[in-house]
Design brief:
Blueprint: H1 14-20, H2 23-26, H3 30-46, H4 52-70, H5 83-95, H6 108-143, E1 149-154, E2 157-163, H7 164-189, E3 191-192, H8 208-214, E4 219-220, H9 224-229, H10 232-258, E5 266-267, H11 286-309, H12 322-347, E6 349-350, H13 352-360, H14 366-375, H15 380-397, H16 406-412, H17 420-423, H18 426-431, H19 441-458
Parallel strand pairs: 3-4
Antiparallel strand pairs: 1-2, 5-6
Helix pairs in contact: 3-4, 3-6, 3-8, 4-5, 6-7, 6-12, 6-19, 7-10, 7-19, 10-11, 10-12, 11-12, 14-15
Length: 459
């Protein structure tokens, strides 16, 4: 019999029962559900709603159930609908009527609001460790490649010379922001809703602050309607996870390009690549491609939650059961992608000569020629035009700018002297950009110091 079946004359149709049940996916919250119930039962005993002896028996039995679940000795029942009623059914089976007192003053509405907050904050903590490992890996790659010159791009056209360290530091900035977003999301998530009841709180003298402290929440909710119907924290987490996946995808797209024969900047390790069933020469960057593809799943999870919540009146509605599969999938996907992405980075081979060769073509030092002319007291717009004509001439004669003879330089501007060759050397071009945030070695070292401090502070 259903724990809520007193009002009903007929049993639930088997098809409807299966459709209504959420135990297939919310069983993963068993630990949070039990710990929440332990805190609730302890509080009931403290407040005199049930006796101390009853409270202690319930708590002791809940821990036994937790151990049985973790040892694979417990069976979840579709007929019990969800994780909450499954746990309560197990409890009643063990201690009878005393177990029926656990749910006093509590609704599944505030119970699930509690469970999912507890579950997701634990998941955030795990994801943050994964991002920390990624940041450490990125920092090492950057630190090892402070002088590895490569082309920087805009519009996927060669733009200016930078270093691989500088390029990697761009992603350090992205994943650092992801860290702060997750921590900020966790902060707003860590508010305790238990005590909201179904929607109108309870008549029992509950000590909500005690429960919040016991479960490591920072505060309690202050409106029972919002307490049971708020899923902003789910949406916010899905948004933060979507941005993480977007950052991973951008990086993967670049690595896929760099891994092509046309670029040959990197080569994926055999352990992170696959072959073709028909073309024996192929070595495909499947890890990067799969991560890029999985972004769509997480975006879809975010849009699904937003769409589900957009028309729901206060307070709880069954539609909200749909939030869990979406956010669980988003969390699982990010947790699947981050470690394998980090492994792919750690094992890939860098082709530094090809990076330097890539920076040598495409007139990446053209802006430095213009800056050279500015230092010769030529207005920048005039210098820009002069260098544009130089590039046009170089294109027609199939020359790089540093291959110009002095006569060819003089034909473009009589302000150019022999020091032009040093001024447009790629290393000079990079090292000249010393301001904070630039690609010069000293500037990147400051960025890496900042990253080290960030990791020490935030993790």
């Amino acid at each position: 019999m259903k724990l809520w079946g007193g009002r009903f004359e007929k049993g639930t149709d088997e098809l409807v029962n299966d459709f209504n049940s959420s135990i297939r996916f919310d069983k993963r919250m068993y630990k949070q559900d039990i710990l929440g119930s332990v805190a609730h039962a302890t509080m009931l005993g403290n407040c005199g709603v049930i006796t101390k002896e009853e409270s202690e028996l319930i708590v002791k039995t809940l821990y036994i159930i937790l151990e049985e679940i973790e040892n694979g000795k417990a069976e979840f029942l579709i007929d019990a609908e969800d994780i909450h009623m499954n746990i309560e059914t197990m409890l009643i089976a063990k201690i009878g009527d005393t177990g029926k007192k656990l749910h006093t003053g509590r609704s599944r509405n505030d119970q699930v609001a509690l469970d999912i907050r507890m579950y997701l904050r634990d998941e955030i903590d795990e994801i943050l460790i994964m991002i920390k490992n990624l940041l450490l890996s990125l920092s090492k790659i950057a630190g090892d490649n402070l002088e590895t010159i490569m082309p920087g791009y805009t519009h996927l056209q060669k733009a200016q010379p930078i270093t691989l360290a500088h390029h990697i530091c761009a992603y350090i900035e992205m994943f650092s922001r992801d860290t702060l977003r997750l921590k900020d999301t966790r902060k707003r998530m860590n508010i305790m809703p238990l005590g909201s009841g179904a929607l109108a709180a309870t008549t029992y003298p509950f000590d909500r602050e005690f429960v919040a402290e016991k479960l490591s929440f920072d505060d309690i909710t202050y409106n029972s309607l919002d307490g049971v119907s708020d899923r902003d924290f789910v949406i916010e987490l899905a948004g933060s996870l979507s941005i993480i996946m977007m950052h991973l995808s951008r990086f993967c797209e670049e690595l896929i390009l760099w891994n092509t024969n046309e670029f040959s900047f990197v080569e994926m390790d055999d352990s992170c690549s696959t072959g073709s069933s028909i073309m024996p020469q192929k070595k495909n960057p499947d890890v990067a491609e799969l991560i890029r593809g999985k972004v769509g799943r997480v975006y879809g999870d975010l849009m699904s939650i937003l769409t589900t919540m957009k028309g729901i009146p206060l307070a709880y509605n069954k539609d909200m059961q749909e939030d869990k599969e979406c956010i669980f999938d988003a969390v699982d996907t990010v947790k699947l992608c981050l470690p394998v992405f980090t492994k792919m980075l750690d094992t890939m081979k860098l082709n530094k000569e090809n990076m330097l060769k890539g920076a040598s073509g495409g007139f990446t030092n053209a802006t430095d020629v213009a800056d050279y002319l500015v230092r010769k007291n030529i207005p920048f717009r005039q210098a820009h035009e002069i260098v544009g004509k130089m590039v046009l001439y170089a294109t027609k004669t199939n020359k790089a700018l540093d291959e110009f003879t002095m006569e060819e330089f003089k034909n473009c501007s009589n302000k150019i002297e022999d020091d032009i060759y040093e001024a447009i050397n790629l290393k000079t071009c990079v090292e000249g950009r010393k301001i904070i945030g630039g690609p010069a070695k000293d500037a990147v070292l400051k960025t890496l110091d900042k990253c080290k401090t960030f990791i020490e502070k935030e993790f």
